[in-house]
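Quiz preparation item.
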């Protein structure tokens, strides 16, 4: 498997680039908007099918991880996943889904209403699960609190604070619930 390519972008087309790595040109499908020629590192997903091998590339590792999550959703292939993973940074996409941002939603729903709804639902579930696995959640879980109560308390606690302060605030909230 190819995880990343480090080389020089020598050709930029509408939906792919050619990255020269040691004299070998790799065709990498990606969002090429605003991408300059020159030295780069691209994180890649390699798809091998009966029709050949394709590389899908991303400037940020987080977008590659999002792409991989998207391809696991039923009915979402690499081309659609690439479009969605290229909409914005992962943080902007998370925030857009959480806040139901009209601009982000419009971009997601450009793939079709049913698929768009499925993507929003699946990603929101994945983002919630990831948030639950942060340090504050684990600390409270280790103290013996029930997962549903922890999730509710952490939702009420400010995300702008350090992990310690979030745990302290969540403990106050959990103490009131008993």
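Solution:
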């Amino acid at each position: 498997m190819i995880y990343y390519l480090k080389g020089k972008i020598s050709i930029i087309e509408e939906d792919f680039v050619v990255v020269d790595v040691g004299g070998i040109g790799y065709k990498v499908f990606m969002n090429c908007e605003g991408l300059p020629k020159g030295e780069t590192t691209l994180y890649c997903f390699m798809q091998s099918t009966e029709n050949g091998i394709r590389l899908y590339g991303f400037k940020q590792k987080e977008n590659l991880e999002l792409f991989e999550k998207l391809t696991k959703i039923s009915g979402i292939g690499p081309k659609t996943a690439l479009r969605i993973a290229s909409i914005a940074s992962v943080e902007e996409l998370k925030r857009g889904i959480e806040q139901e941002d009209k601009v982000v939603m419009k971009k997601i729903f450009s793939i079709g209403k049913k698929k768009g709804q499925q993507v929003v639902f699946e990603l929101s579930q994945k983002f919630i699960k990831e948030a639950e696995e942060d340090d504050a959640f684990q600390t409270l879980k280790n103290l013996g609190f029930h997962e549903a109560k922890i999730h509710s308390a952490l939702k009420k606690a400010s995300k702008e604070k350090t992990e310690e302060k979030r745990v302290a605030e969540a403990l106050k909230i959990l103490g009131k619930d008993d």
